[in-house]
Amino acid sequence: MTGTTNLLELNHAELTALLADWGQPRYRADQLRDWLYVKLATDFDEMTNLPATLRARLAAETRISPLELIYEQASRDEQTVKWLFRLADGQTVETVLMLYPEIEGERGERRTVCISTQAGCAMGCVFCATGQAGLARNLTADEIVAQVLVAARAAQDRSAPHHLTNVVVMGMGEPLANYDRTWQALRVITDQDGFNLGARHITVSTVGLVPGIRRMSDEPLQVNLAVSLHAPNDALRSQLAPINDRYPIAEVMAAVRDYTTRTHRRVTFEYALMNGINDMSSLAHELARLLRGLLCHVNLIPLNPVVESPYQPSSPERSAAFQQILQDAGIPTTLRVRRGIDIDAGCGQLRRRVAAPDANS
After folding, report:
1. Which CA distances in Å does 321 have to 67, 117, 246, 335?
2. pLDDT digit string (tens) for 294-350?
3. 8 Å CB contact between 245 and 280
4. Beta-carbon neighbour count of residue 24 at 10 Å?
């Protein structure tokens, strides 16, 4: 990592221009991108069809990955793996790969990576380990892209096709608070001359940053929008997600309605079910009224609990009852299967646990 040009931040045209400045023919950029995004190379020495002089210059003046693996943990069923990476300045971020078997009515297996866009988070959601740790900094585009490539290599190692089927921008941080770098990374990931993941296989999640939602309405990339709602009224939502004081539910819903009108794409509302906090039947009815008539889907998520937190997951019975109320009201609803509970797969949990010994030393 001695170089200063981050290759994973460059689209095809920018990479071609860089190599042209070095006196290289155009096809060298195609070869390099093939190594980076198809063969998933991690070292310039692997790129055997590039001249040795070019490989040496690339090693001296550019870098491939800014991530240093410091911890990896797989679930007992080997369907979920979580990584903790150290960045060049010592900050750490989490990434999670989830493998899903083929479901009847769907096409093939799913291989989904959940990526981070910030080291930490400033949103302060009370049930989230990342939010309680605070924000260190935004990630750069290459730090975001590199997480996707790590997951693609891991999927390949697990006898799955090397390409991922889905990317969810739902890890550490608020993507819309790091808007420009997040979109720069998404353009690289969806580049047809590179990794070539379809935009509709990417979902960006926000806790409700209204200006960012409105910017998404004008994006040419047809990525999906998910809004972490967690409560159907301002009083409760402000307790759980303090950003609601700045962007209350009415403003969030207005932005979402404009988004669906402009893009004609369905919005997902994420709702982390917490026992005795937001899982009562009265709140389910209130949520159904809030979402009635909107092009949307509700994703109910039994909370991945933080150790010693008062916020704990709802029981299967309460979760199922909440789902049934929404469905009876005509709101499409899915109750997500909990993944990676045995490996601290909730956002920020592994980072917090690994850092704890240092904090107590």
Report:
1. 43, 34, 32, 11
2. 999 999 998 987 777 889 999 999 999 999 999 999 999 999 876 545 445 455 556
3. no
4. 18
**Higher local confidence (pLDDT), 132 or 124:** 124
Cα–Cα distances (Å) from 154 to 33, 68, 145, 161, in that order, read 19, 15, 15, 10
d(CA 267, CA 135): 27
Residue with the two structure tokens 């210059």: 57
The pTM of this model reads 0.90
CA–CA distance, 332 with 327 (Å, rounded to integer): 6
pLDDT of residue 265 exceeding 90: yes
pLDDT at residue number 356: 47
Cβ atoms < 10 Å from Cβ of 50: 19
d(CA 310, CA 89): 33
Helix (H) or strand (E) holding 80, with range, is strand 80-86
DSSP secondary structure letters along 88-152? TTS-EEEEEEEEE---TTS-S-EEEEE--SEEE-SS--TT-HHHHH-EEEEPPHHHHHHHHHHHH
Q: Which residues are catalytic?
A: 94, 347
Give me 107's structure tokens: 């096409």
Tokens representing 119 are 């080291």
Rounded to 5 degrees, φ, ψ at 297 are -145, 140
The rounded distance, in Å, linking the Cα atoms of 344 and 346 is 6
Maximum CA extent, the chain: 68
User: Is residue 175 within 8 Å of 214, Cβ to Cβ?
Assistant: no
Name all contacts of 246-254 with Cβ < 8 Å and 24+ positions apart.
247/208, 247/209, 247/210, 249/290, 251/210, 252/208, 252/210, 252/213, 252/227, 253/290, 253/294
pLDDT of 166 over the 90 cut: yes
